[in-house]
Sequence to fold (360 residues):
Amino acid sequence: MAIFTNSKANVLQLLALFSSGVLGQNLNKPVLFSDGLSPHVDSVFFQHLTPTQSTWDKWGWGWIPQACLSVVQGTQFSPYDIEVYNVHYTDCASAVVMCRHNQAQMSIINMIDAFGRIPIHDRQWTQHILALPAGGCSAGTGGAVTTFYGPCYIPSVFVHELTHTLDAFVNDKTGSTGAVHVYSTTSSYLNSVNQDSCVPDGYANTSPQEDYAQTSVLALYEKVNPGGLDPIGPWRCLVNAKNNLDSIIGQELTPGGSCTHRWADSAIVCMGPAAGCTSSKRGFEGRRGLKPVGPKPNPANKKGDPLVLDLLPDLASVVNAKITDFSHLSSNHTAGIEATIRINAWNKAAGKETVPVPKA
Ligand SMILES: *[C@@H]1O[C@H](CO)[C@@H](O)[C@H](O)[C@H]1NC(C)=O
Fold:
């Protein structure tokens, strides 16, 4: 996912890189793993990325965050088939709003569990996540929104995507201003990559942004695996890039603590004319035999809230996110069953809805 392809900042950086001859779309380096990262990291992530306690509730039908609507409008899917959820994790006072197509392979439980395993100081930079249907897992990130297509209940995919957002917003030691300033394409990062004799995998070779995202998967692995990175293989061929990345987003990749930043949520809008959100019949019966429209939800995060910056991530970047297919993934059905039981228990204790546990 070359993110923010539309953003002026990124275009300028790319031009600078081309003119200095550094970029070249392909990094052309030997790879640490020729079969991708997932087979090497996801079992450890499922065991050592601790699920964060949460509760969830579903929005009444008819309302949707603008960012979700814009993504869906760029696909063959109907906005009327999107479910919207508030997810309250115990490490942050305000909810995360997630959007899910009712036929998506990822359940809301899968979304809550995988997202909640990501360290809060990383997760807090993502504004919204969406799940849409597809045969295989692919994903795209832009403007602090990540869209997952198909069966992406895979921790390393979540880590990778969320790093694209960190790469854009958490990039310099002078602090996070909320402005887009991609770090992975700076000469500082590229020089480290040049000093290394490998990149994580073939996908990392496709661009500095992808290399940075894949390297972050290994940096997180190092932090959470009790034996660090050494058991994984001869990873020191990328130690310079890994250390450089750690100096920039190592804190974000470290589990623990509570949220210190939130984006304002994307504006809450009507799914479309058939939802009749503004009609006098609202709340009784949607038009065209659709479901009744719920009351307009309040935003979980808005400007003026203590942790919320004034800047909003760019909506155009959300829509223009480049989508990438992930390969060599296998879903973890056992983890999905355990997550359902766990999250159901949390929701039940809070007097909220539960869902059927998938069959073993
Ligand atoms: C699946 O998840 C379980 C935890 O529920 C974990 O112990 C196991 O290692 C995972 N397996 C894979 C292949 O990811």
About this structure: Residues 208-224 form the longest helix (17 residues). The first strand starts at residue 31 and ends at 33. The pocket of 2-acetamido-2-deoxy-beta-D-glucopyranose is lined by residues 42-43, 46-47, 332, 334-335, 338 (CB under 6 Å).
